[in-house]
Amino acid sequence: MKHSLVFVEAPVGLVEPQKWTGRWARPEWPTLLSSNLSVAEIVSLWWRADDPVWNKAVISAASFSDLVRYGPVIRNKVHSWMSSLIQVHSEAPDGNIESLPEGAGIRTDSAGVALAREKIIPSMRKWAHVDYERSSLQWKESVLASLVETVRAHGGEVVLYTMPVSTPSKSVIEKSQMLRAERDRLKDWAETRGIPFLNVDFPYSNEDFPDLAHLRSSEALAFSRRLAREYKTHVKRSSITRTVNHKTGGR
Q1: Which class is 5-19+139-248 in CATH?
Q2: CB 102 within 8 A of CB 85
């Protein structure tokens, strides 16, 4: 990881307000987490996370089915069985379990896009008014802070950057005085920690967000190039600032 860069997106200048003592998994899709956990992390899930006990059990069972070298047919049957149990016992916000495509990627079928467009604003409002207002988050205690610490301990760097968002999604944030203040707190914290925070200037329109949440894939390369240029500009600017400070003695 030495000399590597870990880019973390901050849509509208905000990062998910997560703490290790909060919930690790989406209540409606807990098994999305299973294939990413090691044995040590499963243990940590049980004593640190605030997920319901049933969801922890489901995640653990699904994780072990991935860790053991089962054949793909058996593994798929285990996951199918877990999914059927989740539909009965999970704490999905609206009581419904929406289907996900194979591999748990973003749905791009017409029905999935229509569903996302229908739910994006209520989802954003929940994120804004529930996750942030109830979290009483101190950024130094966040998952983001521990990520920065871990990456730096291995010789890398974390870079925050803004992502394009659709007008309906952006309006939820801009109308909230509390979220605008939280955005400023995050920027101040990042600055005190020396974490680059890039405001990527990227032209787009609402038509570039088929589901009103995710930038269409055809724009991915253009945005990535713009992000790379912004980071190079940041490095150059920082280098000039350090040179000036060195020559003037920091005055």
Answers
A1: alpha beta
A2: no
